[in-house]
Amino acid sequence: MESWSRAKRRSGPRRASWKRRRATCRAAWCRWAVHPNPAFQGNVCFNFLALDCVKRHEGRQDAGEDIAVELHPRADLPRLILEGHISHSLVVAAFFQERLLSESK
Q1: What's the CA gap between 59 and 43, in Å, rounded?
Q2: Is there a single domain that holds both residue 37 and residue 54?
Q3: What is the pLDDT of residues 36-86, one digit of tens each?
Q4: What gap in Å lies between CA 5 and CA 30, rounded to an integer?
Q5: pTM over the 0.85 mark
Q6: Range of the domain at 48
């Protein structure tokens, strides 16, 4: 098993190719690790928190790649999750972890 800092350097927003990085952030770091399906797999999903992001360009998708970006106020996230607009389990878990962090301060 590799160390937390090594896994942090090899993955996440800083590892993404420059052509796909549309934003520059003040800080981005690995905050949490979750096990997506521990009954069948030993993999770990690392969640990152990026702060104060600024859009740099529109992005350049590969052929056949279709990405839509929607911006919503942070306060709307619980409603978007409850209404089913955000339903991916790992994304919901990441938002829950971020909420726990903000409430613990």
Answers
A1: 29
A2: yes
A3: 999 999 999 888 777 777 778 777 888 888 888 788 888 899 999 999 999
A4: 9
A5: no
A6: 1-69
